[in-house]
């Protein structure tokens, strides 16, 4: 258990009293990660909102920006990069297009296909929002020391890899 008394420690103590036959130690990690995820999400979406974006909007603009010049991807590729269905992606693209942040056009490689691209305004918005987002994430990690951040990143990367690649194959795009 943590040396600090927090809500999760209290819950574990109650379960320990009520169900001493069940090992509640996993709750120390999972419960805290779950609570942290909620707190972090609240802090992160505040930055997005300052730019008129929701989480999904930010994800789409970021995926387009990461694509490099000319900052475009097919809708299916965007869905893959943001882990949403193509139907959800269509709604996001519609919203972003209405806001002048992206444009759609026919694919030059496949006339039947479509391509979504950042507009100049969209690139400005994502560049500014991303810089503020990274400063915010740095602030959120500032209660930990540099060594703790590095250790936590390594632990989380190993754990996530076990879920994303249970066959041991490395990530590639």
Can you describe what's shown?
By secondary structure, the protein is mostly helical. The chain folds into two domains: 1-50; 51-164, Winged helix-like DNA-binding domain superfamily/Winged helix DNA-binding domain (Arc Repressor Mutant, subunit A). The protein is built from seven helices and three strands. A three-stranded antiparallel sheet has the order 1-3-2.
List strands and helices in order, with pairings.
Blueprint: H1 7-18, H2 25-50, H3 55-66, E1 72-73, H4 75-82, H5 86-98, E2 102-106, E3 114-118, H6 120-141, H7 146-164
Helix pairs in contact: 2-6, 3-4, 3-6, 4-5
SSE string, helices as H and strands as E = HHHEHHEEHH
Q: Number of domains in the coordinates?
A: 2
CATH architecture annotation name of the largest domain? Orthogonal Bundle
CATH topology of the largest domain: Arc Repressor Mutant, subunit A
Net shape: elongated
Structural class: mainly alpha
User: Portion of residues in helices?
Assistant: 55-70%
In total, the number of strands is 3
Spatial extent as radius of gyration: 21 Å
Produce a short descriptive summary.
By secondary structure, this protein is mainly alpha-helical. The protein has helices at 7-18, 25-50, 55-66, 75-82, 86-98, 120-141, 146-164; strands at 72-73, 102-106, 114-118.
């Amino acid at each position: 258990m943590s040396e600090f008394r927090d809500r999760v420690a209290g819950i574990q103590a109650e379960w320990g009293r009520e169900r001493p036959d069940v090992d509640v130690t996993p709750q120390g990690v999972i419960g805290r990660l779950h609570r942290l995820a909620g707190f972090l999400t609240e802090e992160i979406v505040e930055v997005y909102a300052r730019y008129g974006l929701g989480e999904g909007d930010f994800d789409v603009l970021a995926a387009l920006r990461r694509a490099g010049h000319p900052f475009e991807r097919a809708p299916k590729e965007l869905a893959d990069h943001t882990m949403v269905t193509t139907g959800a992606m269509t709604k996001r693209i519609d919203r972003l297009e209405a806001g002048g942040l992206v444009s759609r056009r026919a694919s030059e490689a496949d006339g039947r296909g479509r391509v979504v691209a950042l507009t100049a305004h969209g690139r400005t918005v994502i560049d500014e929002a991303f810089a503020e987002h990274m400063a915010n994430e740095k602030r959120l990690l500032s209660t930990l020391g540099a060594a703790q951040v590095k250790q936590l990143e390594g632990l989380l990367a190993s754990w996530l890899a076990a879920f994303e690649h249970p066959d041991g194959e490395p990530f590639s795009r």
